[in-house]
Amino acid sequence: MYPVKLADFEGPLDLLIHLIEKDKIDIYDIPIVSVTEQYIAYLDTMQEYSLDVASEFLLMAAMLLQIKSRMLLPREPEEEGEEEADPRQMLVSMLVEYRKTKKQAQALRECLQRASLQTARPPLPLGKILQQVKRYGLGDLLRALAALLPKPEEEDTVIPRQEFPVQERMEAIRSALGGKRKKMDFRRLLQDRKNHSEIISTFLAVLELLRLKEITIRQTVPFGPITLESRKEDGHGTEEDR
Amino acid sequence: MELKKTAELEALLFASGDPLTLERAAGTLYCSTGEVADLLEELQQQYRTAERGIELRKAAGGWQLVTKKETAGLIRRLQEKQEVKLSNAAMETLAIVAFRQPVTKSEMEAIRGVKVDGVLGNLVELGLIAEVGRKEALGRPILYGTTDRFLQTFGLDSLEDLPQLPEEILEGRGEGPEPLFD
Is the pTM above the cut of 0.90? Predict the structure, then answer.
């Protein structure tokens, strides 16, 4: 058994590089028998610790055994005199490439370590926020809000009955002016009115009576009291006077 | 208060965070790239004193403000989160992409001798590598390359700044035969 530490290897190539470097073996002249033995011993150790041996490791074991068997076979002399390809050729080039990558990774890590001594800050988010505020207006905001609010139930619009018809008010004024007093203070007319619609309809009634020339309105001084006067009665009066 | 041009450039660099190119800075400051280069030199000079904790760094084709190396320990104390540490598997895969880009997933797997799906996904997620196209080969596999973020993270100005290792280190002993293929 070869003492192989159960280190973390990144893959079968990593393990092979470890075995080669450990014994300071020339990568271009790998003693395939001993390396294969060590490699398989390592896999056995992994299994002893009941670690799952990844399929890549098994594939490499098969490749090593195949190379080993080809190395053991006597070489047939080539008639053409061409060099017979070394069975290790493929493995060697894989190892060389992988070792290259490992060294480059190490160099990169050094770059990273150097660079991470310095900290840069992320870009200010300010620009993006302003841009968004500009692009969306109040209308968009309201629309978004409206979409969130529950929709009002569709209801028929009800126009409330007119409680104080202008006609009625006109009648009331007529009768008020028809009595003894032919004059009437405008303010008194509005005094007892209960709500806005009554006041409004009274006011409209006054205006309507004025239009019909049934009354006249007097105000002797600015902001003074406004007096309503019946013209009809006046008329009657004149007739009576006559 | 009328600010000096160096102060304006400093503000731009602060706001940018990411490396700012000479062209971009010149376009913003309404001056020539030559002037920006002079201003950068002036600013760098000002940062060189022991009174300043930041300095300019050239990265990914532009300039950015970074904290000085001497403050590394201090900054680490400030940061609560540990930075993502790249595993050896990730570094090896990244090295393949960086030095041989553009490269496909199966090419990475051939070199490393293992599957790379997991680390590849991580590297893409970290924004260090990205898809750069498709290889005109069977199945049109995705080609990967490094990003600007990679350059910035590794403090490199361009891919030409990648650490070049001497051939004898990369290939092994000098006495050995030539590599059988590249």
Answer: no
